[in-house]
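Protein CYPRO4
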Amino acid sequence: MGASHSREELISDSDEEEYEEEEENYQDSKDDTPERSSSGRRPKTPSSLDEVAAKLEALKLKYPTSNTPNASLKNAVKLYLHIGGNTPKAKWVTSEKLTSYAFIKTAKIDGQDGAEDGEESENEEESGDVWWVLKVGNKIRVKVGVEMQLKSFGDQRRVDFVAKGVWAMKFFSDEEYKSFVSKFNDCSFENTYKMESNDANKVKVYGKDFIGWANPEAADDSIWEDAEDAFSKSPRSATPVRANQDLREEFEEAANGGIQSLALGALDNSFLVGDSGIQVVKNFTHGIQGKGVYVNFDNGNQRSGLNSVHSTPRKALLMRAETNMLLMSPKTEGKPHTTGLHQLDIETGKIVTEWKFGKDGTEITMRDIANDSKGAQLDPSGATFLGLDDNRLCRWDMRDRNGIVQNLATSTPVLNWTQGHQFSRGTNFQCFATTGDGSIVVGSLDGKIRLYSITSMRQAKTAFPGLGSPITHVDVTFDGKWILGTTDTYLILICTLFTDKDGKTKTGFNGRMGHRVAAPRLLKLTPLDSHLAGVNNKFRNAQFSWVTENGKQERHLVATVGKFSVIWNFQQVKNGSHECYHNQEGLKSCYCYKIVLKDDSIVDSRFMHDKFAVSDSPEAPLVIATPLKVSSFSISSRR
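Tokens:
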């Protein structure tokens, strides 16, 4: 697939007439024509004008309508349905030449009721479990929210959205279009935060320093433009990033089967983590290739209870110049998260020990682990790493408290908690990542994103409010200037730069951001692509391309959703004058991307290290893994 906007053609008036006639024939064929009674006899001739009027009304005759709606029809729209998916026969057809919409507050999202715009039953209001629902004619009834993937086209007075299909509504005036978008945003806010959409409540949700997130038109976007200028001055800028770059598949090969995750290396090898072991592959400038050593999880020292990793580890983390790997055990012993991990010596192919997480003599659990910094896996002497649980953020040391490597001949060794904090309530941490200098970004269940400096894990320097959707994965650039959060239905890109009172530019990791906080930008699939990806497929593991050197800038972003690997041009996303942002309402959303479609659900999509980028390509190869295959793609410019 190419850029998705190629499938969002204008809905022209000439097309409408053709499709309307086609749709009208279908509608007529379904109408009951009461020319004969059930007994087959002709009805009696009517004896009065009233009877004639009644008979005509019963016929439900259809007459051509003009482009001007019936003045008595409130919230009138034209409704279109997209058919044909992404096939050559794909097109928009008119579903209703003239219909109306209403926003209804109800508990019956999928049911039917006759409530008018804004009405609700007394019992529903008392129950407290009510939602705003969009109802269009008798064909659409859907809960208002980000799951609809609503996309607006101001120049066409049109909105597209997903509701058990892909629909478009066209409005008859600019005022009606703007009224719908405003009401939709208000209903979405109330459904998300359970409070009325007004200025006071927006301050409660976002905070006065982040009010630009609620009113993007009033936000200061100059930081984005400054950052874009800095991007053009970074190394490798001689290789321009163009919108017409192509993805070319270099090769694809079968794996040993059951791939569950990728552990890409920046040196000689990368690793495919599977159901029963790890396959070692070679790194090349055109991707990863070759079936090297296969390490079974049940190799090595049986004393460590290695059968417990015979099912796939939750996480594989490279360390010590990529000679060692930490494997988070899936065995939880009845606890919500992992109680320990295994350390694999890659050079010998043996698991050398099993570690337990503990603090003050008590065994604890971890949700996730990460390297101390972006390039820490290249440090040959590395002995520490970071851990995250729902209400914990800490650093673990594989040495004892005196800095001496522990005696592994003893019973299961316990990792040393060297730094961190246990929060007393409600942080609900979900994921985290580190910058080049070791600063930490943490994503939470409530959508908040917190920034911690390298000196303290107790209190965040900056806490972004989020937009109501849980952050399931987070990444950050090497320089800490940009954060990429993953939610089920969109990606959120945040600029951490701000100017302090002395006029110095800093990141939110190093100081508290004041009132001049730029609004974030969203990266979304079009409603059509979202529908094609499947109702149960969600965004996963969005990441920047990979650099580990000061002064270099990441150039692409990639995320996985179902069988799609979706790639955005980073510079294009940051460009505020990009065509994608024209005529948009609310937060700027970028829909210009490329899609790689695979035959199976994608396990992971990641760019190799920047060192593997060749001279005629602006980016290192992209590696895409499915359970049974691994593919490598290069990015080249059209000539």
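The two ends are 19 Å apart (CA to CA).
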